[in-house]
């Protein structure tokens, strides 16, 4: 009934990229370079994406600062950080391709901070063995998004010269939300949504869609994420028949501002700690030394003196424990606060003021200084900050093929990159790995979406009936006037997730959460939004709620199922890591309206990659049988080498030449 | 605990609207954007307002608070008097969409018109070498979060829609400056472009843009003024002026300083012999007509002529032959004030009605 009178703007594209953050823009650039007519859809204005919030840098083993760094070391750090739950192939591709992706940005006009010999400078960061993060002060994310944005503009200028229009081959639809993916059988046929500004509907007919919508943090009370992070891509993928993995793993950034209340959740970059900042409790104690887990004991300093020497002499000293991976630091702060040694606002102190001269702080952390001064009237060069854990990043996401970024499940023509995809970071992401993740897999997704389009024999078609359903769903909250206010529902959802599916989880609380989410589902189905279709934030939120809810259900279900603590998932009732659970991915899919959870074995890591680790380290993660297999392989290897050596020696002896032994020795080395 | 504070917020759309009064609870440590969010969650769920990061990093929540362009997330409530009524209005320079949301597409159009970074042809990715001191100048401008507060405050366009086609605004002057100062940018005519195509000449350095910049970028001092100075160096070279004093116009070989220095100068030569945005001394019929009609910042006025040199390539001049003791007028000694009205680049606000 409504559809016959509803105006829908139609567009035809080869590749539609949903999301205009780092991954989305990089995917779009790639698709356009492959000659595809590309649309970029952004919920905000062009260039406002959440990527701007990334401060520390982009991890890439360029070896500019320490020449011992290489992709193998980066791969090892990533796997270690993710507690070996990472998709090894993604971690491998990421470590190998990140330097190229960073260098490419310079050709787009990026200006990173430099080393003395004029190369891209790299900084230390939690979990990275060598200084590895390419950075621009503490506004690296802004540099990245602006660079990609300006690259797109430059391609549009090319198109204007050759085709007469800026929008000829790549167009940005800003302030536009996609509410539904449209399928033709099991193939993506298009996407349906609305312009936020006018409320008018828009239909994209396209055989390939790249999801790059970011995360889910808006379902939490305390979060560093913006309103955009409502899990749209996760939910769109689920409804289109794709699967999500690792949804129980959420990263709580250890140092978010806890005061003043208005900016609760906003991040204090890890570089504050990398540059010498230390964590203290209300008793003034530097407490992180008490929280170094066994797995990391070898790499971290045991005394304050050693830790302090590390900042100037990292080769001969071990790192300060403030630079442990994020999950460890977040848990430590949480424990201190629970033990009653927190600040009045419920955090701990992060002190850089007493560690560096004011001038140096302003030079190294300009935007941090400016942010605290501007937002809270706190001068970080004079007083310590009050910080605590804040919901920051979701490791879980759309299950993808590591090489092509194509979504698994029953759907074809759907690709995902960036935070919305899962697997790369395992159970915990290292700082700096997300910016490089965006670039590496953004490029891959854009490229493979283009290849997919080329290989299609016929274009999938959008069925009128699916569009009609999408219109009805979108308009429903405006047509009801009996339902609840979307803001109330969002607050309730945030309370459930924050209180019951937060940083420390318990079985009964998770069960309780699932019950409450089921109730919320009923209420969200009846939500009503006041006002009209023109730029109506209430209506927009009402539509986003549906996505937030289904993704929250996935997280709660997976968190209940995984009976161990690992990375971004901490169960009070199962406080240790269990090697058996390392072999299992929890996969969510949608069956009708309900979330279905399956166990799926992790892909088996290739031997040459496994050999990059010490046996002692592997023993912390692998099951006994996996270790036995590893030992057997190692023994076979050793035997093979020995046999080869023996054969060579035999041959040399046979030849009766002294030089033969030398050759065999060489081979052995 | 919270206190009740008075707010007046502009509600409406392109067809009109007005200020509406709200009494809202405000807690310690909050900013104006928090108050807007509280209103949305309570009595005004459809109050339209852009925002994203709420940390002063994305530049989405630009609004005018008590008439001052600011980021809503960085306007601390503690900076206002307890009994003060706080008035929040949308950015004045851009058309209203609804409530506090304006159509800022002007800025994106100007961004598209600004030539992009030109990578050096002979350097492969990974081979870029630059010194920190050299990138720092451009890095200052790359701090820009594109909140467009400098654009909305700029008086050249704030109440003069008619200037918009010819004027890119402070945001894009610093974009040009950033590229101009980029150690490896292969394009060399950024300044000339800013002068001739972006309307740099309109700016008369009132520094309002610098004042509102939430990133504290010294837009005028470090961006606009250096660009202007270098353009001026070329355009208002005293030697050029001297040449024109010694030789009468038309006798001097037609060499143009601007185009001589940069063969890639953007504007093509007009038939009258080049163009010049200087207000005085137009002798071109076409530009006279344009001037009569009011604003056309692209109207063509003659360029200064290049100095004539002797066989050795020097000016035939010594102090002895100079006819004055003082420095020449920066406007050119052949310009007398007041200028004839038809030579002024000025539009009366009501001139459209007269036509």
From TrEMBL, chain A:
One of its GO terms (molecular function) is steroid dehydrogenase activity, acting on the CH-CH group of donors. Residues 649-663 have a biased composition (Low complexity). Transmembrane segments: none annotated. The keyword Transport does not apply. Keywords: Coiled coil, FAD, Flavoprotein, Oxidoreductase. FAD binds at residues 19-24, 42-57, 232, 419, 434-435. The keyword Flavoprotein applies. Its cofactor is FAD. PANTHER family: SUCCINATE DEHYDROGENASE 2 FLAVOPROTEIN SUBUNIT (PTHR11632), SUCCINATE DEHYDROGENASE [UBIQUINONE] FLAVOPROTEIN SUBUNIT, MITOCHONDRIAL (PTHR11632:SF51). NCBIfam families: PRK07803.1. This is Succinate dehydrogenase flavoprotein subunit. It comes from Micromonospora sonchi.
């Amino acid at each position: 009934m409504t559809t016959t009178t509803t105006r829908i703007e139609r567009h035809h594209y080869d590749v539609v990229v949903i999301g205009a953050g780092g991954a989305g823009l990089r995917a779009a650039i790639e698709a356009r370079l492959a000659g595809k007519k590309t649309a970029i859809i952004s919920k905000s204005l062009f260039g406002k994406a959440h990527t701007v919030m990334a401060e520390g840098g982009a991890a890439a083993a360029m070896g500019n600062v320490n020449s011992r760094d290489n992709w193998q070391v980066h791969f090892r750090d990533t796997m270690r950080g993710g507690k070996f739950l990472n998709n090894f192939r993604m971690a491998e591709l990421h470590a190998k391709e990140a330097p190229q992706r960073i260098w490419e940005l310079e050709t787009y006009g990026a200006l990173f901070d430099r080393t003395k010999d004029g190369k891209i400078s790299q900084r230390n960061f939690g979990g990275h063995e060598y200084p590895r993060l390419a950075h621009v002060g503490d506004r690296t994310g802004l540099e990245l998004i602006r660079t990609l944005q300006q690259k797109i503009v430059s391609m549009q200028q090319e198109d204007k010269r050759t085709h007469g229009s800026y929008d000829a081959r790549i167009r940005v639809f800003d302030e536009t939300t996609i509410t539904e993916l449209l399928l033709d059988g099991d193939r993506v046929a298009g996407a349906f949504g609305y312009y936020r500004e006018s409320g008018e509907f828009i239909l994209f007919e396209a055989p390939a869609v790249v999801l790059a919508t970011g995360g889910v943090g808006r379902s939490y009370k305390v979060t560093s994420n913006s309103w955009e992070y409502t899990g749209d891509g996760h939910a769109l993928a689920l409804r289109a028949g794709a699967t999500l993995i690792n949804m129980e793993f959420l990263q709580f950034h250890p140092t978010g501002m806890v005061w003043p209340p208005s900016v609760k959740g906003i991040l204090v970059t890890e570089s504050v700690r990398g540059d010498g900042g230390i964590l203290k409790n209300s008793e003034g104690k530097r407490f992180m030394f008490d929280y170094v887990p066994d797995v990391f004991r070898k790499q971290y300093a045991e005394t304050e003196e050693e830790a302090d020497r590390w900042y100037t002499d990292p080769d001969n000293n071990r790192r300060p424990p403030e630079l442990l991976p994020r999950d460890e630091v977040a848990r430590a702060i949480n424990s201190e606060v629970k033990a009653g040694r927190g600040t009045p606002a419920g955090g701990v102190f992060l002190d850089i003021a007493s560690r560096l001269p004011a001038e140096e702080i302003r030079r190294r952390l300009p935007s941090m200084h400016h942010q605290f001064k501007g937002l809270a009237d706190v001068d970080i060069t004079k007083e310590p900050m009050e910080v605590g854990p804040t919901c920051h990043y979701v490791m879980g996401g759309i299950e993808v093929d590591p090489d092509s970024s194509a979504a698994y499940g029953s759907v074809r023509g759907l690709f995902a990159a960036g935070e919305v995809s899962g697997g790369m970071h395992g159970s915990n992401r290292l700082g700096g790995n997300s910016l490089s993740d965006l670039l590496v897999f953004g490029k891959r997704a854009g490229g493979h979406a283009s290849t997919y389009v080329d290989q299609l024999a016929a274009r999938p078609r959008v069925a009128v009936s699916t569009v009609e359903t999408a219109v009805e769903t979108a308009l429903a909250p405006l047509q009801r006037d009996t339902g609840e206010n979307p803001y109330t529902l969002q607050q309730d959802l945030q309370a459930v997730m924050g209180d019951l599916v937060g940083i420390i989880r318990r079985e009964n609380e998770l069960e309780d959460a699932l019950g409450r989410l089921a109730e919320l589902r009923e209420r969200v189905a009846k939500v009503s939004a006041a006002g009209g279709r023109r730029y109506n934030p209430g209506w927009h939120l009402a539509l986003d709620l549906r996505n937030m809810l289904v993704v929250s259900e996935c997280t709660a279900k997976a968190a209940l199922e995984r009976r161990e603590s690992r990375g971004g998932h901490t169960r009070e009732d199962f406080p240790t890591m269990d090697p058996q659970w390392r072999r299992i991915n929890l996969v969510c899919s949608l069956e009708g309206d309900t979330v279905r959870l399956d166990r799926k074995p992790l892909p088996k890591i290739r031997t040459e990659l496994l050999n990059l680790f010490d046996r002692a380290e592997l023993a912390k993660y692998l099951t006994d049988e996996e270790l036995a297999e590893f030992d057997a392989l190692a023994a076979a290897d050793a035997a093979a080498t020995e046999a080869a050596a023996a054969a060579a020696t035999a041959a040399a002896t046979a030849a009766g030449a002294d030089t033969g032994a030398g050759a065999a020795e060489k081979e052995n080395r | 605990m919270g206190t009740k504070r008075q707010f007046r917020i502009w509600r409406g759309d392109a067809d009109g609207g007005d200020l509406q009064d709200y009494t809202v609870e405000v807690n310690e440590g909050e900013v104006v954007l928090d108050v807007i969010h509280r209103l949305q969650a309570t009595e005004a769920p459809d109050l339209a307002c852009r925002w994203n990061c709420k940390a002063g990093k994305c530049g989405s929540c630009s609004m005018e608070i008590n008439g001052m362009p600011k980021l809503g997330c960085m306007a601390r409530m503690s900076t206002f008097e307890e009994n003060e009524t706080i008035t929040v209005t949308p950015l004045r320079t851009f058309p209203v969409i609804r409530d506090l949301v304006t159509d800022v597409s002007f800025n994106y159009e100007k961004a598209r018109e600004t030539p992009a970074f030109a990578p050096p042809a002979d350097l492969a990715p990974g081979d870029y070498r630059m010194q920190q001191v050299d990138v720092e100048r451009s890095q200052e401008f790359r701090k820009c979060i594109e909140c467009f507060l400098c654009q909305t405050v700029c008086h050249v366009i704030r109440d003069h829609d008619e200037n918009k086609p010819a004027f890119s605004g402070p945001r894009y002057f610093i974009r040009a400056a950033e590229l101009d100062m980029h150690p490896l940018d292969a394009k060399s005519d950024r300044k000339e472009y800013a002068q001739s195509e972006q309307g740099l000449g309109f700016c008369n350095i009132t520094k309002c843009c610098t004042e509102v910049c939430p990133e504290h970028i010294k837009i005028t001092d470090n961006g606009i003024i250096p660009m202007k100075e270098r353009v001026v160096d070329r355009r208002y070279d005293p030697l050029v002026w001297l040449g024109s004093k010694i030789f009468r116009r038309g006798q001097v070989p037609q060499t143009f300083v601007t185009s001589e220095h940069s063969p890639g100068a953007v504007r093509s030569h007009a038939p009258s012999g080049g163009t010049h945005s200087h207000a005085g001394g137009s002798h071109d019929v076409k530009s006279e007509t344009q001037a009569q009609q009011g604003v056309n910042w692209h109207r063509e006025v003659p360029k200064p002529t290049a100095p004539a040199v002797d066989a050795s390539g020097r000016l035939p001049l010594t102090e002895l032959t100079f006819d004055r003791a003082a420095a020449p007028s920066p406007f050119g000694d052949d310009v007398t004030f007041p200028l004839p009205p038809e030579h002024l680049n000025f539009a009366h606000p009501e001139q459209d009605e007269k036509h």
